[in-house]
Design goal:
The protein is of the alpha/beta class. Helices cover 44% and strands 13% of the residues. Strands 2-1-9-8-7-6-5-4-3 form a 9-stranded parallel sheet. α2 packs antiparallel against α11 (270-284) and α8 packs parallel to α9 (215-225). The longest helix has 17 residues, at 117-133. The radius of gyration is 18 Å and the shape is globular. The N and C termini lie far apart (43 Å). Bound molecules: 3-hydroxy-3-methylglutaryl-coenzyme A (HMG) and magnesium ion. Magnesium ion is lined by residues 16, 177, 179, 207, 209, 240, 249.
């Protein structure tokens, strides 16, 4: 199969990137980050999550962030919701798209959402029904698709069965999360080949954390199966609070560098993306995790 000519990048930095930060990131910094990401041409930017503030305190200001940052008609600003309460808060705020999440192992499901896989799917079905009734779009996530920090190996048939259930309940897209970042390209390819037997491949997304430096390779492997939607995080920030040891998502800059190099269309401007990365890294007081970002910035500095 030929590689996709166009890829949609879902920027998850303001949510997945920041949710694990121990020090509170001020609301105005989150808003400015989202504006800068929109300015760089990202068409989907996850603005936050309506989850329990006791579980993830960093996302407690999602309403304020969304209300001030979600201003462009050209951009979708989805938020994560784990249950009906989250959906109600999202609807109240005027959100147009929500993302629900399930996990492929029982232990991860309990740690992340305090319920079994089955219970989470029941919750997710209620969220889907109500969201769709209210005119919202729903995206679905599955965590630990290529390995679990608690249970180790994960059965791909279990992953694909959950993916199909999410798709059948109305998720317009299902994002496969390598939460721990342990996946390697061949296994990634096999997982997507299996998933694509029951879900159209253009409805599948890849969400790779980069703990073992495999994410860009995994994206390429997924593209070989026809996948054309990838989640990434500015400057490679982040991690799931319930996935000990896992680092951030693959950096948006690293994905863009590869896609630009392959002539794949994304609509994203690297220089403007680097402005967003510099902004958030300066605020967090740490260097970018993006290899491409570091290389381009140091080349630009040398040239100046
Ligand atoms: P629980 O404690 O069982 O929930 O948590 P509960 O229904 O008993 O409620 C406990 C308290 O939370 C109550 O407040 C509720 O009102 C409140 P209290 O009466 O004690 O004051 N509450 C809420 N508040 C705001 N928004 C809500 C909400 N729901 C309840 N939606 C629950 C269950 C699902 C709520 C909890 O486990 C939770 O919030 N989990 C979210 C964890 C999370 O956000 N994880 C990170 C996102 S997923 C991820 O990163 C993976 C991903 O990136 C893909 C990948 O990499 O794999 C997507
Ligand atoms: Mg994640």
């Amino acid at each position: 199969m030929s590689l996709p000519a166009k890829v949609k990048i879902v920027e998850v930095g303001p949510r997945d990137g920041l949710q694990n930060e121990k020090v509170h990131v001020p609301t105005n910094v989150k808003i400015e980050l989202i504006r800068k990401l929109a300015d760089a041409g990202l068409s989907v930017i996850e603005a936050g999550s309506f989850v329990s503030p006791k579980w993830v305190p960093q996302m407690a200001d999602t309403r304020e962030v969304f209300l001030s940052a979600a201003t462009s008609d050209q951009v979708q600003y989805p938020v994560l919701v784990p249950n009906l309460k989250g959906l109600e808060l999202a609807i109240e705020a005027g959100v147009k798209e929500v993302a629900g999440f399930a996990a492929a192992t029982e232990t991860f499901s309990q740690k992340n959402t305090n319920c079994s896989i089955e219970e989470s799917l029941v919750r997710q079905k209620v969220v889907c029904d109500e969201a769709i009734k209210a005119g919202l779009k729903v995206r679905g996530y599955i965590s630990v698709v290529l390995g679990c920090p608690y249970e180790g190996k994960v059965d791909p048939t279990v992953v694909c069965d959950i993916a199909k259930k999410l798709f059948d309940m109305g998720c317009y897209e299902v994002s496969m999360g390598d939460t721990v970042g342990v996946g390697t390209p061949q296994r990634t390819k096999e997982l997507f080949e299996l998933a694509a037997r029951s879900i159209p491949v253009e409805k599948l997304g890849g969400h790779f954390h980069d703990t073992y430096g495999q994410a860009v390779g995994n994206i390429f492997a997924s593209m070989e199966v026809g996948v054309s939607i990838f989640d990434s995080s500015i400057a490679g920030l982040g991690g799931c609070p319930y996935s000990p040891g896992a680092t951030g998502n693959v950096a948006t800059e690293d994905v863009l560098y590869m896609l630009d190099g392959m002539g794949v269309e994304t609509g994203i401007d690297m220089n403007k993306l680097l402005i967003a990365a510099e902004y958030i890294c300066e605020h967090l007081g740490r260097p970018t995790y993006s290899r491409a970002g570091r290389a381009i910035m140091s080349k630009q500095r040398r040239a100046a």
